[in-house]
Amino acid sequence: MTKALHRTYIWTLVVVGVFIVASVGSYGWEYYATPVAERNDHTLHSQLSPTGFWGHGMGFIGAFLMTFGVIMYSLRKRWSALSGWGAIRHVLEFHIFLCLVGPALIVYHTAFKFGGIISVSFWCMVVVVASGVIGRYLYMQIPKTIAGTELSPVELHRQIKHIRDRLRSELGVEEAVLEEIDRWSGGIQESARASLLTTFPRLVIHNYRQSRRIHELIRRLAQTPSSDHKLEDIRLALVEKTRLQRQAASLAITQRLFRHWHMFHLPFAIVMFLIMVVHIVVAFLFGYGWIFTAQ
User: Fold this and answer.
1) What residues contact residue 160 under an 8 Å CB cut-off, 6+ apart?
2) Which residues have a Cβ under 8 Å from the Cβ of 11 and sit 6 or more positions away?
3) Residue-wise pLDDT tens for the chain (295 aa)?
């Protein structure tokens, strides 16, 4: 998938997700804003209450999207026979899309009313979604090939050296500038032994500072007339070099955080799905089967 096609793919997922969530919210705004004690008399109660047609349906659809998203990604990641079904990175992005839209629909299903054991599942879902966003961020910090396999440190440093040589010999970037860039990733290595609670914020801050430094460096280089025709090539090479350089410097930290993230993310996901299954079974037993109940 080319960069342009990938960008289109991502923006399509974003637009579809926002459209779904915003459409339901806009349609049911008056109902959801009505006090719980007064909702029985609202004209949309038969549609948007947890047992209403659309309210009930959003619970089933949301649960299906989350379940399908988890199973799809897990099978793609662990079953080599599915290696031809798209790059793991793109499957992960679709998994994230499903596991963001699904919980949003489940929140609408509850009509923003949480209680009993369902509240446990809801807060587990909130933790799973939030930690999933963090996990995605960490995943993007680990250097990978186009196929999605992790780069070895040797290959990573080889790529960094290749880009550095290109910046100097082909694009004419001065050695002093390259040495300045080489020093940018030094600070993150000092966080390797810090506590987990402080390591992730430091990593985010460090990455933000890197982006600001690249912007400032490009601005400085833009003031050099001789580099005008090469400026975009220099910018792309600098972005790639600093990205790989940052990943190389923070690799041990990122892998450490990722291991602990799995230990945190998985238990909450299991609890959430167990309670969700119990909830669905009980709903069926009480005759709330949505369109699956014989009329």
Assistant:
1) 241, 244, 245, 248
2) none
3) 677 888 899 999 999 999 999 999 999 999 999 998 899 989 999 999 988 999 999 999 999 999 999 898 888 877 777 766 777 778 888 998 998 999 999 999 988 887 777 778 778 888 888 888 888 787 777 776 655 566 777 888 888 888 888 888 888 777 887 887 777 765 555 555 555 566 777 777 877 887 788 788 777 777 766 555 577 788 788 888 877 877 777 777 777 777 777 777 788 888 888 888 888 888 888 888 788 765 4
> By C-alpha distance, which of 77, 79, 81, 80 is closest to 69?
77
Q: How crowded is residue 17: how many other Cβ atoms within 10 Å of its Cβ?
A: 16
Q: Phi and psi for 225 in degrees, rounded to 5? A: -55, -35
| Token couple for 279 | 């909830």
Q: Is 290 left (phi over 0), alpha (psi -120 to 50) or beta?
A: left
Instruction: Give bridge partners of residue 150 from the DSSP assignment.
Output: 144
Pair 143, 150: CB distance under 8 Å: yes
